[in-house]
Records
---
Amino acid sequence: MDMLTQWVGWLPNLAPGVLVSLQLTGFSLLFGFPLGLLFAVMAEAKFLPLQWISFLFVEVGRGLPALVLLYLLYFSLPDAGITLTSLTTAIIALSWNAGAYASEYFRAGLAAVPLGQKEAAITSGLRGWTGFRIVILPQALRISTPPLAGLAVLMFQGSSLAFVIAVPELMSKAFQIASITFEYISVYTLTAVIYGSITLVFLGFVRVLERRLGRHLERR
Amino acid sequence: MVFSFGTRTPPTALTGEVVVSGLGKSYGASRVLSDVNLTMNEGEVVSIIGPSGAGKSTFLRCLNYLETPTEGTIEIGGARVVAGGKRPDKASLDHLRRVTGMVFQSFNLFPHLTVMENITLPQRKVLGASKEEAQEVANKLLKRVGLPDKAEQYPARLSGGQQQRIAIARALALSPKVMLFDEPTSALDPEIGLEVLAVMRDLADEGMTMIVVTHEMHFARDVSDRIMVMGNGGVLEIGPSEQVMSQPQNERTRQFLKAVLDR
């Protein structure tokens, strides 16, 4: 059978998996990015315990492979009396992972805003949260956008790991088809094409976003 | 008589008077500023000159607590802060920063905001001004600094001289009692610097109280009432501009002026 015909036949089975993958990635970023920002800010807090909490969260999230984090949560949460669906568990694990990395990108973005901006904010009466929100954060976010977009792509690809805890995402759907049809190369090629094309479309959007965010810096 | 308008309004009546006494700053054992005294009347302009590392900028930045002095007192426009001991409360610092406007060597306009937003946002957040009120003030100030047509531009589109004039407008928008200038023309080429100096000259003529750290000797001599010469973290001498320039009392001042004027 010709490969394209095979693919067309498999797509209806894979499509729900794509949706779950996107859902898993979307929620992981939705929780992970704000958490990352929060922990980036906490890392600079004057109140030391906040720094320690941030350090713990970030170093565990970055220190453990996502796969290990997935297994750990999947098997330990029920022991702690918390029963969640495998999708929810995967969202928690990947949010943690994404948040930990994102916090470093946010930290870099915040550190890259020139000190003079903070001073100008203070002398303009924009201190504390107001100055942070109006002056510092928008500039930091622009700087952090490219690495965060890269992280989003990694998280999308990393969402395939959730297959090991039986989340019915794209990879697990592909595996199911492969184990029935034995058409490994064909199935995984299609899977690769799907992951790849979604990533490319996303990166295209990011390109446009970056240009918009940098428009105020163009001299002409 | 004491007026009270809520937390945003300083608790005492505003005057342009500056009284700085015994101001000093140390980092551990190293002393970067010692016993600086300066009293100014409303409308007076004082230029601070001196070699690099003399403590000019540090002194200026202590006046609005961008740097924390370790001793002395600062009284500006009715705000009073005592250094040393525990850090002044937020209200005192807000008051001090409310009565002072600051212009930086590197302009420090907010690059992601338009010129109009740069000038109106502080008014809206600090003074609680409405958008229309803030824009009206901004338009007047833009006219005053000679850039009425740049309101909707982003700072990156402007020349350094234009950016610095906008920065002056931004500082003026909060109606400070005293303007602090930290080498406002040092990042500009001499010709472009003139347009900034012209705006500052107008400001001085209109009676603004100003403290200007500068290497512009003509400006110091012609525009300021007095010149304060700093060296090695202290005041070498202070006096009427003409006198300091033509008959400096201090040997180190003579040396510095000779080096600067002989160029």
Note: DSSP finds eight helices and no strands in chain A.
---
Amino acid sequence: MRTKNIIIYSLISTFFLIFLISIWKILATLQGLSIKSFNIEILFIFGLLISFAHLGIGNRIKSIYKSIIFSTIFVFCDGFLIQKLPIWYNFGAFLIVCFFTYKISKYSFINLKKEHSTQVILFDFLTLFGILFFSFVILFPFYMMFVTSFKTQIALLVNPLDFSINFTQDLKDLFKSYFVIFKSYNFGKYILTSTIVSVGTVIITLLFAIPAAYAVARLNFFGKTFLSTSILIIYMFPAIVLVIPLYTIFSQLGLRNSIEGLLIVYTATTLPVAIYMLQGYFKSIPKELEEAAILDKLSWFGIITKIIIPLSIPAISSVALYVFMIAWNEFLFSLMFLDNPNSFTLSRAIQYLSGDAETPRQYLMAGSVVVTLPVLFIFIYFEKYLVSGLTAGSVKG
Amino acid sequence: MNDTLANTEKKTAYILTLPAVLLVFSIILFPIFANIWISFKEVELKDIRIPEPRAKKIVKSISDEPTKIKILYKLRNSSLIQEIRDVSFQDNFPKNFEIENLDPRCSYKKQKLKCEFGNWPAKYRENFQAIFATNDGSKIDKKNLKSIKPKLEGKSDNILLNTNFTLKNFKKVLFENEFVDLLLTTFYYTFFGTVGSIIFGILTAQMVNQKFYGRTFMRSVLLFPYVAPVVALAYTWELLLDPNSGTLNSLLLNYQIIETPINLLGQKYIEISILGFDFKLRLALTTVIMFEIWRYFPLAFLFILARLQAIPKELYEAADVDGASPFQKFFNITLPQITAVISILFMIRFIWNFNKFEDVFLLTGGASGTRTLPINVYQQGFAISDIGMGSAVSIVIVVLLLMFMFFYFRLLGKRVDEN
């Protein structure tokens, strides 16, 4: 039983070490180092040695000294004997092995004797592995997008693996792609259009949704249940089904290529969720407040503006942010309705840019950074509100 | 007294909800019915433009006669296929203008030139000329004259409003359009995308539900693919996977894992042999599904995490007392607690993946075996410009979705009854 636990412990920790070092090697390769192989066999032997040695030494040496010793030996062997690599790479590898020994420091012979210890080890390492794996897989494309926008066409073609940014060059050269897309491709105008459309959608949606949500939450009327269920059903209806009829109708009414047309469609598609989210919150506001207001002879307009809105600022802001995000990211309708570059939104403009095979990719990536950054900033800054909006509305997409 | 109160309440409620209801119904419900209508018609993209009578006004001075001017109207029917009936024309002129050659179809009264041109067949063109002179001998300002635009009106049939129906579109969709292949591709894409995103959602939620340093940061990072715009992400992935100078292929080549670059988005099949069995994997479709999972697992993650955090801690404590292993705890406590969320998620994601258009369109454009039903709507409607066909495909989508929802709810209902 104990030997089995020890074997599983050492194998899992070894795989974890291999994974850590491999990610570090990939990142180092992307900084221009020429690393041709992962040396998995050597890493495997090292991992086994370190994890066994850790168990063998046990508590005889303080764990901090232990990790420093292990890391130094590892770095010395891996870095200087096998591959000749710069100091910063070895320093990183040193820190990684320190982190690794810190992670395995809680295991000992006594610990491994316990019931279910293999499963505990598996769970622990799976969590660690998952955190690293998902951070890498998710952040890598964003990292690539960002770095590519600062490179030049030639640098990208000569060595596609070189992700290093040369900060010593002129700011003008560094931000060249951004200057180009704003100057020659009119991105300033597209940002303006996108902002107008998104903010406009937020305002109109709130104007329509707040009274409707109040009515659904508070008032009794014929057709109320029908309305609240149909809101949800309508929400499930796919946008692609609406495209052709809306296209024909908008063409005949001359609403294509206009901001008004987009505003109408965006508002209509976000209204159901907005009403659904707001009415849920309005129901949680105590009724007594309104009853007092009715005694004071306040009209419904007064009730909404003086009581409901001030009390539900958090819900309203989460709806607003959520609607803004949908409108800003929307692509399908802007692709269908806009074909005149004068009325493009940012997303449509980037798609249009990519349609030309000659467009250098760093411009495309600079455009992508421009369209992504505002959303990410808003998301990070207002995360609390947005997450509640996302879970309630479960963003259509 | 009570009655009137209830009545005012009702009235207020209708006033409050009416704007929202009208907008949503006109933009979402009406198009669905319009779709059914169009799908039974033979309509092409060029038919939906309403034919208009148009006139281009050209002002020409006549040499040696500064008080006279020739105006040429280039008249035409904007449509190449439809006629316009009862075309009427009107143009205004300055006060001192007199007409010299009055066309029999026209009249000139109160400085207004009015004409009745009758019916214009499709592609109709005519050059219509009028000569004017000032009656007080003053010079003519050409610019001013040009700035006045003539008005034209005419009646024409709107092809969308007539009642000629046909079943041709549906026949084409179901029998001539590689329908089975289309359906299978859509099904693979939807099913594996949904299942994959739910599995990843469970894994990440379980992960973030534990305590570790940087947990809140991790939670926001996991939501990044979900909140960032599709356009940016799709093009980034395209660059990443590019066979010639994409990062992924370069990395794999650098580490000698592969010998020749793989075109992950442009190759339909790849042959894989495992244990002597040869498989044909649909490569581009798999890549697109990967993107789909990558982009949408955060939704599953959010839902499942919210549910996990609501599971009472006592359950786990009791399990610890009983000496349950981590896996037993996961399978016997966690999983049963999240099945309800998963079944809802499955339905929501299945429906939305089924209708997903942007992701596939931006990554492959529907090429190399990734043509799904929504892509087909676009291709039929706008690439082949057969609006009727596009509509028919979208009706097929709606019918399939309704069928799916019906069966899913029946299955779910049975399960609930059994428990």
Note: Chain A touches chain B through 104 residues (CB under 8 Å).
